[in-house]
TrEMBL record:
Residue ranges constituting the Aminopeptidase N-like N-terminal domain according to the UniProt record: 102-185
Taxonomic classification: Bacteria, Pseudomonadati, Pseudomonadota, Betaproteobacteria, Rhodocyclales
Protein name per Swiss-Prot or TrEMBL: Aminopeptidase N
GO molecular function: alanyl aminopeptidase activity; metallopeptidase activity; zinc ion binding
Organism, scientific name: Azoarcus indigens
Family assignment from sequence similarity: Belongs to the peptidase M1 family.
Cofactor requirement: Zn(2+)
Positions of the Peptidase M1 alanyl aminopeptidase Ig-like fold domain: 454-557
Domain Peptidase M1 membrane alanine aminopeptidase: 225-449
Length: 890
């Protein structure tokens, strides 16, 4: 596939002011009529109207009512070109499409008999010919016509103008969106659905209608999404002064969906996974995700829709910013629920979640063949760039701006951004310029965060001068080379620092040249390759606590011995760094165990680590949610990244040993926790309760891993008696991740209970795909995964099923996936090829599971390479998969 470059962006000579769409919906032959009011862009050199189209059958095209001369209409590989005269023209196009044959879930497709659309990034061109670029913002009117039986509900963006009956059992609805929008935000839904609705008032007193549309039988699972929507509205009004701009806001749940959700103007379409929840079917984590995805899509209404991206290279303009906004929202929701006393801990727990995702998903991406800046310079397939880098690292970049400018400065920058760019399609520079102008700051060097790929290394060394009570912190930075970027320039890195006294208290910080000490955490700005900061007036040698709150998306390289890590685990006043000290200590222990076990040497968990771990996990002064974070080991994906060469089998052996040791040595503590933590009364989604459930389930997990009889009995008992999914699933997960034969009965009982519930079955598939081997002679997980492919509830056509079974196996079970006989790699290639024929986006996601293959042991590389080559040689391979594999093999 050809490579598209950011530098090649040119505005189009013709844009569209209004579009009038008419859909005659039919499962196999939908006719789309489109009338475009085209306007010449006076600022651009004259040229034809460019229309993109993909898998369309063109029935008719007229310009101002007449068919154009043959020479004025040219067919291109990916669409059409039409010569237009003058300043304005009306172009009418009729196309026929086949929604039923559309298995890509991009464009117009069928799910459970209903019609749904997904247009971002380039799905609209699969519906009709159009200048399908985000910088073409048009006003839409849409008429939907469909069979009344099959599709009693007809929805599109904006406001409903009219609806009525038609002959032949058909009916219609006409919608109008008052705001100009790019085509990627178009949506329609025509299906058999029921609605939960509420009226709400906006801050300025306008009444708005809020709707959550779901399939019949799911109304009792729509309440949490509705509550989340209302909370999101209130938060955006309060935090950024941003109000809902439409009279009606709809969320629709659909079972077949490539991603989490989509922010179409006024008509958000969601994967059912991020809408439906009731205590019996959804875990605390599901509730949390629903709240944050609903918020994310709602926040896009301003950051993405009102102000959109000029081109797809600017994707992080809306995604990084909107992820940052949803992270802040979730932290505020948690803090509010926790109450004043526990608010800081609640925020830290959320921040730790964010950091975990970044380290487990984004750091490996940034170290592999797909590494790219948050604003990429080129791509072959834009759908491959909805990445952890664009989203999560993008959010970290926005967070650094927030840190550097302060809450008020950031808000002023946002206000200025909207005042300049509302209704426009803009670039990341426009955003940062507004921040700079509103704050009177020069952010030119900061822009390098948008341009450079790779995880920067932050080096730190402290020097204590007892004679004058000063401590000099020497900070260095260095970003390793990434594909296409050998040299990197120094970044602006905000480093939040604290200095801890020997008794564990924070020392007041006074930099050389300052007249008096200030706060106990302050943000240093590292701007060059190396910089020194001298703290004065100290009475004793401090222990530095760096990057508090994870103030920058970097890898901190600081030499700390075990005692110092244990000290910070126990004393650091910054909860994120307390957690991080525990992670670093665990990482060190695990990698040492893996090295020993990999070499066939005897290995044992150091006593000092067990002691430090135990004090933290059992510290009753700490909130259970935080202890659950502190007691959870670093993600396997992150650890593999820290291992050279990556040896999944040795890593797994180390983790098994560590789980079993911690389970056994702390058995009495875990059992005591299981007595103390159960939440009485009816289930409610509340962070305090969720924290207790999380810690209890983790305790069960350690006990089960150790084969502790009392623990296993408790897991069985809690599984049987559970009153909600969090308890039931937690107990089941503990059983599945153990050598206990009880896991099979429990899995069967779980299946029997939920056999008709697609979302719960996803959990059942995923648990089995993620299962470790707890006995060396047990059959490999691959056998189970293969058998589950034939399960009646499984389907390669449903992304949720693919992600649960195959995604979990390929991405979250490295030791089983990379079994030494190479069977996992052959299976991976078979699956990627099979998926690619149906749904390239889903296939590409699975394909990415092997992109970092060069980091593995030589034996694994030798087994992986032929499979990569086999996939690449497949006839008709999509650009999606071919970009991923091509880059992996480069
Ligand atoms: N903007 C969509 C993602 C679309 C992905 C297209 N392959 C969801 C979101 O980020 O909110
Ligand atoms: Zn988004």
């Amino acid at each position: 596939a050809p490579t598209i470059h950011r530098a090649d962006y040119r505005p189009l000579p013709w844009t569209v002011e209004r579009i009038d769409l008419h859909f005659n919906l039919d499962p196999t032959a939908t006719v789309v009529t489109s009338r475009l009011n085209c306007v010449r862009n006076p600022e651009v050199e004259a040229g034809p109207l460019r229309l993109w189209g993909d898998t369309l059958e063109c029935l008719l095209l007229t310009v101002d009512g007449a068919e154009p001369a043959a020479a004025a209409l040219r067919e291109l590989e990916d669409g059409l070109e039409v010569d237009l005269a003058g300043e304005r023209a009306v172009v009418e196009i009729h196309t026929r499409i086949d929604p039923q044959a559309n298995t890509t879930l991009s464009g117009l497709y069928l799910s459970n008999g209903g019609f749904f659309t997904q247009c971002e990034a380039e799905g609209f061109r699969r519906i009709t010919y159009f200048p399908d670029r985000p910088d073409v913002m048009a006003r839409y009117t849409v008429t939907l016509e469909a069979d009344r039986e099959r599709c009693p509900v007809l929805l599109s963006n904006g406001n409903l103008l009219e609806q009525g009956e038609l002959p032949g059992g058909r009916h219609y609805a006409r919608w109008e969106d008052p705001f100009p929008k790019p085509s990627y935000l178009f949506a329609l839904v025509a299906a058999r659905l029921v609605v939960l609705e509420r009226k709400a008032q906006t801050a300025s007193g306008r009444e708005v209608l809020l709707q959550v549309w779901v399939e019949e039988g799911n109304l009792d699972r729509a309440g949490h999404a509705m509550d989340s929507l209302i909370h999101s509205m209130r938060w955006d009004e309060r935090t950024f002064g941003l109000e809902l701009d439409l009279d009606r806001f709809m969320i629709v749940a659909v079972a077949d969906f490539n991603m989490g959700a989509m922010e179409n103007k006024g008509l958000n379409i969601f994967n059912t996974k991020y809408v439906l929840a009731k205590p019996d079917t959804a875990t605390d984590v599901d509730y949390e995700h629903i709240e944050s995805v609903v918020a994310h899509e709602y926040f896009h209404n301003w950051t993405g829709n009102r102000v959109t991206c000029r081109d797809w290279f600017q994707l992080t303009l809306k995604e990084g910013l909107t992820v940052f906004r949803d992270q802040q929202f979730s932290a505020d929701m948690l803090a509010e629920a926790a109450g004043e006393e526990d608010a800081a801990s609640a925020r830290a727990v959320k921040r730790i979640d964010d950091v975990r995702v970044l380290r487990a998903a984004q750091f490996p991406e940034d170290a592999g063949p797909m590494a790219h800046p948050i604003r990429p310079d080129s791509y072959q397939e834009i759908n491959n760039f909805y990445t952890a880098t664009v989203y999560e690292k993008g959010a970290e970049v926005i967070r650094m701006l927030h840190t550097l400018l302060g809450t008020e400065g950031f808000r002023n920058g946002m206000d200025l951004y909207f005042s300049y760019h509302d209704g426009k399609a803009v670039t990341c520079d426009d955003f940062v310029d507004a921040m700079a102008e509103a704050n009177g700051r020069d952010l030119d060097q900061f822009m390098r965060w948008y341009a450079q790929a790779g995880t920067p290394r932050l080096g730190a060394r402290g020097e204590w001068n007892a004679a004058d009570g000063s401590y000099t912190l020497r900070l260095t930075q260095h970003t390793p080379p990434t594909p296409g970027q050998a040299e990197k320039l120094p970044l602006v890195i905000p480093v939040a620092v604290g200095l801890i006294a020997p008794d564990g208290s924070d020392l007041p910080l006074q930099l050389e040249g300052e007249s008096q000490p200030g706060a106990s955490t302050r943000v240093l700005e590292l701007k060059t390759a190396e910089q020194r900061f001298r703290f004065v007036g100290l009475s004793a040698e401090p222990v530095p606590s760096l990057l508090r709150g994870f103030s920058a998306p970097v890898l901190l390289e600081l030499e700390e011995d075990d005692e110092r890590l244990a000290f910070r685990m126990a004393k650091d006043s910054d909860p994120c760094n307390r957690w991080d000290a525990a992670q670093r200590y665990a990482e060190r222990v695990i990698l040492a165990l893996a090295a020993d076990l990999g070499q066939g040497r005897a290995a044992a968990v150091p006593e000092a680590f067990i002691r430090a771990f135990r004090s933290l996990a059992t510290d009753e002064a700490l909130d259970p949610a935080f202890r659950a974070q502190a007691a959870a080991l670093p993600a396997e994906g992150y650890l593999l990244e820290r291992m050279s060469p990556a040896d999944p089998a040795a890593l797994r052996a180390a983790l098994r040993l560590l789980y079993a040791t911690l389970g056994e040595r702390l058995a009495a503590d875990w059992l005591a926790l299981c007595e103390r933590l159960p939440v009485a009364g009816e289930y409610r989604y509340h962070p305090a309760d969720a924290g207790r459930r999380a810690l209890l389930n983790l305790a069960l997990r350690y006990l089960a891993a150790a084969g502790n009889e009392a623990g296993l009995a408790l897991a069985r008992q809690r599984f049987g008696a559970a009153g909600n999914m969090t308890d039931r699933f937690g107990a089941l997960a503990a059983l599945v991740q153990s050598a206990s034969p009880a896991r099979e009965d429990a899995l069967a009982a779980f299946h029997a209970r939920y056999k008709d519930d697609a979302l719960v079955l996803d959990k059942w598939f995923s648990l089995q795909a993620g299962a470790w081997r707890w006995q060396d002679d047990a059959p490999g997980t691959l056998l189970r995964v293969k058998a589950l492919l034939d399960d009646a509830a499984f389907s390669l056509s449903n992304p949720n099923k693919v992600y649960s079974l195959l995604g979990t196996f390929f991405r979250a079970n490295p030791a089983e996936f990379h079994a030494a006989d190479g069977s996992g790699h052959v299976f991976w290639a078979d699956m990627v090829i099979a998926l690619d024929a149906r749904n390239p986006q889903v296939a590409a996601r699975m394909a990415r599971a092997l992109e970092n293959w060069r980091r593995y042991t030589p034996a694994l590389q030798a087994s992986i390479r032929p499979q990569l080559e086999r996939v690449l040689a497949t006839k008709g391979l999509s650009p999606d998969v071919s970009e991923v594999i091509g880059k992996a093999l480069q």
